[in-house]
Each structure stands twice: as structure tokens, then as C-alpha cells.
Amino acid sequence: MTATATSERAERIERRVKRLAAAALLLVAGTAGVVPAAAAPHQGPPAAFNWLRPAPPPAGWKAAPLEGGAATLFYPPAWHAVQTDPGTASAGLIGSHHRLVGYLNATPQQGAETLANWIDFRPKHVAKEGARHVRRTAAANALAFRSGRGACVIDTYQTSKARYREIACLVSGAHATTVIVGAAQLGNWARLAPSIERSISAFET
What we know:
Elements: H1 6-23, E1 62-65, E2 72-75, E3 80-82, E4 89-94, E5 100-108, H2 118-128, E6 132-145, E7 148-158, E8 163-173, E9 177-185, H3 186-202
Antiparallel strand pairs: 1-2, 3-4, 4-5, 5-9, 6-7, 7-8, 8-9
């Protein structure tokens, strides 16, 4: 599994959460079942990213640095750090029945993803990892982040458990190029989007 396999990693986390609640407080991640779907329109309007306003995180937010300190993920106090792949940083919001309803992840650049190809690369990658009905709803290049420039995609996809919406950005900074992803089940998106967008706006690499 590559570093940007977010749907698979998110469901793997959910499975850990349930196993831990049933056994002894271990965090669970669920495995995504996903299959390629048709691509959506090529590029969304820049207005879809008006929320991206680079700024330090709000007071009280937690910090999860990547290995070596090349990048830092910030997340709200109600969210919890989640153990996933080595070298990554993840946080999740756990809902009723120990379901993972919101998810944040930062992962170092690992594969063929670049700022030039990210808009097409991300949806294809999500589909390749097994997600069904992948639909890109917006995309933009040359976006400003706190410590660099980035390209972002907003898409939706179906896993074996639920339908998700995600914001996935590839950010190139002074120290590293890093993928940051925020995702939530569609039914929780309106409630969690402000926190996910604020986390991405605060991301530092």
C-alpha cells in the first residue's frame, strides 16, 4: 500500500478502533473496498478553495509532526492521534459505536505524485486502491500554504462501509513534499468540514 491510500488506511483505523474497544482500547483502522470509476470534470472552480487561508492552528490544537520534523499536522482537541503506517501522522474523530467519522493524515511524498500531475493522479490513485464511484468535484494548482505551494483535489468515493468526501493536497515546502488528506463520511461532512479545512490551512511542511 502506498502512502496516499487514504480510504484503505481510514477503514483500517476504524477496524482497529472497534477491535480495541471490544478488547482493550486499541485503535482500529478499516480496509477500503474500492474500484475504479469514471473521472469527473477536469478542474473545479478556484472558489471551491476559498477556505484555504494559511495560518497557525487555533489555540489548544494538537500537533503531530512527521518523522524527522519535515512536516506537522495540526488537529482539534476532540480528535485523537491514530497509529497508521510508519513515517506518517494521522488523527481521527471517533463517533458512536467506535466508528471513524473524520480522518486527517499527512504522509511524505512516496510515489509518482507531483504538483504537475496531482489533479489527475489523486482520483486515479484512490480508484486504484479499491474505492468505487470516485468523483472529482474540484481541483486547483498553485495554492498557497504556510510554508510552500500545493495542488489540491476534492473528491467523493465509496468504500465497503460508507461514502466519503475528501480534500487531498500535495504540498511542496522548503523541507519536504508531503500529502495531507482530510476525509469524512458524507453525512458528517457539513459538520466536520470546518475542522478539516482549518487543519489543512494550518499544515506546515
